[in-house]
Amino acid sequence: MAVAMLAEIPGLTQEEYEHVVTKVNQMGSPIGALFHAGGPVENGYRVIEVWQDREAADTFYNSRQYQDAVAGLTTHPEIIMTWDVFGVDDGSGWRQTA
User: Fold this and answer.
1) Containing structural domain, residue 33
2) Do 5 and 51 contact (CB within 8 A), yes or no?
3) How many CB atoms lie within 10 A of CB 46?
């Protein structure tokens, strides 16, 4: 089942965020990624992601691709919550994920 994740990254700057997403997406979106949105909040960044399943998210976050993208950062995401996702609209129309 698809899963959504809400994370906050304290102290992350816009430049650091842009570096990470640019590096991660150099070869296209990560396998299993359905949606990503990020933006500044007080004292850092907040990110919402939707993945095909928890295994896809775990595979990405343990990948060399992700580790290389965040190398040198002194802050790490704090997962605020996760939840199962029944459907998603990524701008191309709503579809069921299960």
Assistant:
1) 2-85
2) yes
3) 17
